[in-house]
Amino acid sequence: MExxxxxxxxxxxxxxxxxxxxLLLISVKQYLYEKSKPxxxxxxxxxxxxxxxxxxxxxxxxNEYLKEDSKRSxxxxxxxxxxxxxxxxxKAQANLFFLKRSVSLNDVAxxxxxxxxxxxxxxxxxxxxxFNSYVQQARIKYLIECVEHDPNLxxxxxxxxxxxxxxxxISKFSSVFKAVIGIPPSAYFQRLRMR
Length: 195
Known about the structure:
The chain is an all-alpha fold. Among the domains are: 70-135, no CATH class; 137-193, Homeodomain-like (Arc Repressor Mutant, subunit A, Orthogonal Bundle), CATH 1.10.10. It is built from 8 helices and no strands. The protein has helices at 2-36, 79-94, 105-112, 116-127, 131-149, 158-164, 170-181, 185-193. Helix 2 (79-94) packs across helix 4 and helix 3 crosses helix 4. It starts with a helix and ends with a helix.
């Protein structure tokens, strides 16, 4: 009889030990998850001096690429740094960084004097777009502004216009144009020619 109580006592203790180990593992996992969350506060960095000649005017291009990005709320950034990065981004935008054929988020981060996470945060927060969508939309807006200010560009081949806007191919240019504007470039430019 005493042996049965001894086995029961051991069984209960082993069960309690297992429950404690599971709870400990859950607590450690939760702690590590909380600790690894992005968004550590970083002091403002030195800013890069980039010459600019103004900013692009806003146009009424439909925002078909608008995306919600839940990650942007995870970034902790001081207001001073955010304002500086926005100002540097506007300078880089005015210098038409997006026309570089193989522009990357790393290139933009270098222009801003920051990291890719902060550069992405600025684009997401102030333009409501991810990096690639921003670049594609900015290229189309730029090309439309160029054509509206210089009607002679309407006589150019699409390959020349695509190259001018930083696209590597006519097919990429056409698909992005249609996604951003809602109609193919041929129809859009035809309307402009008829004015």
